[in-house]
Design brief:
By secondary structure, this protein is α/β, with parallel strands linked by helices. The chain folds into two domains: 3-126 and 309-330, NAD(P)-binding Rossmann-like Domain (Rossmann fold, 3-Layer(aba) Sandwich); 128-303 and 341-352, Dihydrodipicolinate Reductase, domain 2, CATH 3.30.360.10. It is built from eleven helices and 14 strands. It has helices at 12-22, 37-47, 55-59, 81-89, 104-117, 131-141, 178-183, 185-195, 209-213, 309-323, 334-352, and strands spanning 3-8, 27-33, 50-52, 66-69, 93-96, 121-123, 148-157, 198-206, 221-228, 233-240, 251-257, 260-265, 270-275, 297-300. α1 links the parallel β1 (3-8) and β2. α4 (81-89) packs parallel to α5 (104-117) and α5 runs antiparallel to α11. The radius of gyration is 22 Å and the shape is globular. The two termini are 34 Å apart.
Length: 375
């Protein structure tokens, strides 16, 4: 039987989620909710479901299994806490858009309460639910990457001074950390997905003159150096239209190990793998030789539409609940989203301390599922 979904927040991203549920055999969209009555009525009519105007009324619908929260607010996250917590208290499973919240204290409460209530809390960290990410993960699982050495990630928006326009929307204007809070959950979650927990963060931040002239306080270009728990080192560059990215497009992730390296380009489009060279092709500093790698092996997904990441991620959420996985094993869980926010807050602290090294706040512990763990 399909899981029945009530959707809260019906701007563009909400309609994207609604379309995904209507086309997924594991889910059934049965209700939509928005405080703007006209918006709720319009989307309800579009998808042939019931409209609600207050979440408390929707939560009384005992047929609803999942509440999907796609509200926005300041920094795209200030309207997440209340509906998520109300849904958790009602015993509903929850999927929420990223960021989990624009307030780290709220995010910690959301994860803790979902654990206490025994409900699933997932976040729409959709950037690694793609065929290239799955192929890259396969390279790692097969041992073809080896011991991790470094991770390089570029993610943002390509533009420049000729296209800059001040965004005076209240959700963004006069909020210096809006790009941090609204966006860094994506790249941090991708880096963690492939390389594990981050233990050290150091950030350098700026904004170009065109923003300063417009009195735009957003800290829009973020350069972050990290260290992972496994001793792999990494670098994240994220910027919000201050410049145009070169190689790799608007989204690129390169992960290198002692046996091979992969690079995903434009998130969903392709992945390239280079095996480490043999003795004859290895670089030799004494001979001023950089060396050459074998390959490369290129896998194209055949997909260029980034919006296809949404139904893929939503299907994974529905699949995990349908299969009854332990909440700690939920893909792109609330705890995973909290990890990305802890790294974001560490980056902000590092910036405020002039680039000092900061250790992120520890995550809630994992205890393991006794039904699946073998002595």
């Amino acid at each position: 039987m399909a899981l029945r979904v009530g959707l809260v927040g019906l701007r563009g991203i909400g309609v994207t989620h609604a379309s995904a549920y209507k086309n997924d055999p594991l889910g059934e969209l049965v209700a939509v909710c928005d405080v703007i009555r006209e918006r709720a009525d319009s989307v309800a009519e579009q998808f042939g479901v019931r409209a609600y105007y207050r979440l408390t009324d929707l939560l009384r619908n005992e047929e609803v299994d999942i509440i999907d929260v796609t509200t926005g607010g300041y920094e795209n996250g200030s309207w997440h806490f209340e509906p998520v917590m109300e849904a958790i208290e009602a015993g509903k499973h929850v999927l929420v858009e990223k960021p989990l919240s624009n307030d780290i204290r709220e995010a910690r409460q959301m994860v803790a309460r979902a654990t206490e209530k025994g409900v699933y809390l997932g976040c729409n960290l959709n950037h690694y639910f793609t065929p290239p990410a799955e192929r890259a993960r396969q390279y790692m699982d097969e041992g073809r990457v080896g011991e991790l050495v470094y991770c390089l990630h570029k993610m943002g928006f390509s533009a420049g001074e000729g296209t800059y326009q001040p965004n005076r929307n209240a959700r963004w204007w006069d909020l210096p950390y809006a790009h941090f809070k609204a966006f860094l959950s994506h790249p941090f979650s991708v880096m963690r997905h492939f390389c594990g927990d981050i233990t050290h963060v150091q950030a350098f931040v700026n904004r170009p003159g065109v923003r300063r002239t417009a009195r735009d306080v957003m800290l829009s270009t973020v350069s972050i150096h990290v260290r992972f728990a496994n001793d792999c080192v990494g670098y994240l560059l994220s910027q919000r239209g201050d410049a145009t990215y070169g190689l790799g497009g608007w989204w690129s992730l390169e992960v290198a190990g002692t046996r091979g390296t992969f690079c995903i380009e434009n998130c969903i489009e392709k992945v390239t793998f280079w095996p480490a060279p043999g003795t004859g092709e290895a670089g030799d500093p004494a001979k001023m030789s950089g060396g050459t790698s074998g390959g490369p092996e290129v896998t194209h997904s055949g997909i260029t539409d980034f919006s296809q990441t949404f139904p893929r991620r939503i299907h994974a959420f529905l699949e995990d609940i349908t299969n009854g996985v332990h909440p700690e094993n939920l893909r792109a869980s609330g705890r995973d989203a909290l990890a990305a926010l802890e790294y974001t807050w560490a980056a902000m602290e590092s910036y405020e301390l002039g680039g000092a090294l900061v250790r992120p706040h520890p995550l809630p512990p994992l205890h393991g599922d006794p039904r699946t763990m073998v002595d």
